[in-house]
Amino acid sequence: MSAGGTADGRGLDGCVLVEAPWLMSLAVVGDDAVEYLHGRLSCDVAGLAPGQGAHALLLTRQGRVQELLAVYRRAEDLLLVVDRGRADSAMAALEEFIVADDVEFEPCEQAGSLLLMGQNAPALLAGAASDFSELNLSGLALSMRRREDLCVPSFELLPGPGSDPAQLRAALEELGASMGEPALLDRMRIESGTPAVGVDVDEKRMAIEARLEWAIHFAKGCYVGQEVIERSVSRGRVNHLLCLLQIDPAGAAVDAAEVAGLQVAGGNPADIVTSVSMGVGGDGEVALALAYLPAAMTEAGSVVELESDGVVLARATVVEWPRPRVLVGRQSPA
């Protein structure tokens, strides 16, 4: 995609297919659609050519996160891909600054959305030369949308005319993809350091605190929230950062569900564990978590204590952040 980037080389080998009914599309039409979205979203909408896409943030004036979404330029319009459960709030936020602009947001009917992810996914979709395209796979028509929010290559796939979800799934499995559980996607999201809106980040959190620089174009000019984002990056004054933690299994007397919501000892009430995933690692069960830490505790290898009501219930080690900090449009990272 034309802005942002994936984390480098971590994650899922092979090729896994996960059903993705929570994804929803909005067509953006009207003579002012490109100009309006360019001033509303953090990516370079005006710079997208047909077939190109980017992930973007929808921000408040204070640089706080309302939505994380994907935007694609089609021949005649723009397409936004949002979380279905947050579609109404996303549309309300998107329409907030419309005055006399010729722009409309139209929900698209779609069924059978699949997410294909893994290091072998690009090879399986060898005909995918752009971020958004119509493909033919084993005789089946499909729509492909490249995504950049995981640390492995990933693509949203939709059955095209004359195809149905079962046929598309069978064709992908025949080509080597294996079906995965929804929990695997959440695991990959956490491993990728990708915050879920409403879980790890919301309108109380600064985009820079959540390390969402990869969804921002820093040379595109004005957009809602841009001044606060630029000031935060230029001054480097971020007191809290989202971090990836590995929970110490020997010191954890609680399960993964109970770890979520624990506070970080030495932090403030906003420094908490927001997401947790259990998984199998080389040495047995490994719990990974996303948590906000005070800036002084964010160095990889730091050990932190997780507590509730002043009682330490678990310990964790800060893992190296999986996504390199690239500030698109700036000559050098801040």
Helix and strand arrangement:
Layout: E1 16-19, E2 23-29, H1 33-40, E3 53-59, E4 65-73, E5 78-83, H2 87-94, E6 104-107, E7 114-117, H3 121-124, E8 132-137, E9 140-147, E10 154-159, H4 165-174, E11 178-179, H5 182-191, H6 226-235, E12 240-247, H7 256-259, E13 263-264, E14 273-281, E15 284-294, E16 303-308, E17 311-319
Short characterization:
The protein contains seven helices and 17 strands. The protein is of the alpha+beta class and 334 residues long.
Q: What does this protein structure show overall?
A:
This protein starts with 15 loop residues before the first strand and ends in a 15-residue tail after the last strand. The longest helix is centred in the middle third of the chain and has 10 residues, at 165-174. The protein is built from seven helices and 17 strands. The chain folds into two domains: 16-187, Probable tRNA modification gtpase trme, domain 1 (Gyrase A, domain 2), CATH 3.30.1360; 239-334, Elongation Factor Tu (Ef-tu), domain 3 (Beta Barrel), CATH 2.40.30. The model is unreliable at 2-10 (pLDDT under 50). Strands 8-9-10-7-1-11 form a six-stranded mixed sheet. With 334 residues, the chain is α+β, with helices and mostly antiparallel strands.
